[in-house]
Design a protein that fits this description.
By secondary structure, the protein is α/β, with parallel strands linked by helices. It is built from 9 helices and 12 strands. The strands form 3 sheets. It has a 6-stranded parallel β-sheet with strand order 2-1-3-4-5-11, covered by helices on one side. Strands 7-6-8-9 form a 4-stranded parallel β-sheet, sandwiched between helices. The chain is elongated and about 70 Å long.
Length: 275
């Protein structure tokens, strides 16, 4: 019987760039190994996790969010005795190995960036409910607001799905509430908010400040370029692959988790309010 030769990067995510950046990191870490990378994004398909993880050629699996918190998927992988690493999980952190970034603190930091520039009427566009990082990012936002004695206004909250189209839709609804700033919880939605503002003749950043999250290339090319939290997704993918390789070679080794650090990238989409 031949030795398992593949590492599976498994995703269920609308964010193609998000997955691509993680994939690049995993591929980089596997270059000097005997393993090849198989990457599958089941978003919008009829493919099932159970069908993909049963391949006898698999040596291990990297799960990205939200599959990193999918208990049924994790249980299936555990039943097959396959080593796995979870990227950005929030549940059951003792299951498998994990690679994390402090989503809460990152969201708190970029909200603080707006608050320090005088913004108080700040709209927030949440991500999809099945992505638990959406909750962490909102909680970081709410914590920063509370730290300045501000209550989160439910009328200033939109519910998107991490797509640009949902950013346009939710941005348009929030603009009717006359915020001075909007925090979209990923960059694609932030670009959608920009598009909604432009369609209504609202100048960014003179009339509205906009911030995002993830560090997508598109955010740096937007007009204006968007202030954001850069997640080191390539680094996260590489760390996950390195941990997985260690686990494959030494199955009885103890958990070897990793935490990476975010970067607040300041660009031209934020202005300070006049005192």
């Amino acid at each position: 019987m031949s030795r398992p030769s593949k590492i599976l990067l498994l995703s269920d995510n609308v964010g193609t760039e998000y997955i691509a950046r993680i994939e690049q990191g995993v591929a980089r870490a596997l270059q000097s190994s005997r393993f090849t990378l198989a990457s599958r994004n089941i978003y919008g398909t009829s493919e099932k996790v159970a069908d993909l993880v049963g391949d006898p050629a698999l040596a291990g699996i990297v799960l990205t969010a939200p599959l990193a918190d999918d208990r049924a998927a994790i249980a299936r992988i555990e039943a097959l005795s396959l080593p796995f690493v979870r990227i950005a999980p929030l549940l059951d952190l003792d299951r498998g190995n994990i690679v994390t970034m402090d989503e809460f603190d990152a969201a708190r930091a970029i909200t603080e960036h707006l608050l320090q520039r005088g913004h108080r009427r700040i709209g927030f566009v949440k991500g999809p409910r099945e992505h638990l990082v959406s909750i962490r990012r909102f909680n970081g936002f709410a914590s920063a607001m509370g730290g300045h004695g501000l209550k989160v206004d439910p009328d200033m909250i939109g519910f998107g799905d991490f797509s640009r189209a949902s950013g346009r839709e939710q941005g348009a609804a929030l603009l009717a509430k006359r915020p001075s700033a909007i925090f979209a919880s990923n960059d694609e939605m932030a670009i959608g908010v920009l598009e909604a503002a432009k369609a209504r003749g609202i100048d960014v950043p003179a009339d509205l400040s906009v911030v995002g999250f993830d560090g997508a290339v598109a955010a740096s090319r937007a007009n204006p370029p968007i202030t954001t939290i850069r997640q080191p997704l390539g680094e996260m993918g590489a760390a996950a692959a390195e941990i997985l390789l260690e686990k494959i070679e030494r199955p009885t080794s103890s958990a070897n988790n990793a935490e990476v650090h975010y970067e607040l990238v300041e660009r031209a989409s934020v202005s300070a309010l006049a005192a």
